[in-house]
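Private note to self, pasted from the team thread so I don't lose it. Backbone tokens:
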């Protein structure tokens, strides 16, 4: 087995813009895999950063959907209501989403590695707990 092993917490990351080439190289093109962002694309867009430059993982669509199931409704609800969204909100929502994925889809080691990656990436974007990612309008 190679260096990458998601279930053991060894993440294989790539820039999102290279996702088609990664799927082609790994033999997963056309097989239900997609580029999964750890920090959501919506966060990148909200702070004026390009999500194409974000690090992502080549994961089955079902796993990406499972991760998105928790944070996405929270983000959309807050955005729709005009509420402020902070770095703490992003960290809590995405972190909880990762932890809520069933262990038959994502091991404890993988969850820990993804949360660590989330923290590193947020710091790299200059997002702290108090950073206003989306200003509230109400």
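Design output:
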């Amino acid at each position: 087995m190679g260096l990458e092993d998601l279930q053991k917490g060894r993440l294989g990351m790539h820039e999102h813009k290279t996702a088609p080439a990664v799927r082609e190289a790994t033999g997963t093109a056309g097989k239900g895999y997609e580029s999964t962002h750890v920090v959501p694309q919506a966060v990148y867009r909200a702070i004026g950063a390009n999500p194409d430059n974000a690090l992502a993982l080549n994961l089955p669509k079902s796993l990406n959907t499972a991760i998105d199931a928790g944070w996405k409704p929270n983000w959309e609800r807050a955005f729709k209501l005009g509420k402020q969204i902070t770095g703490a909100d992003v960290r809590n929502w995405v972190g909880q989403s990762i932890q809520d994925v069933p262990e038959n889809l994502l091991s404890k080691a993988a969850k820990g590695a993804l949360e660590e990656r989330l923290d590193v990436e947020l710091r790299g974007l200059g997002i702290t707990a108090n950073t206003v990612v989306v200003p509230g309008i109400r």
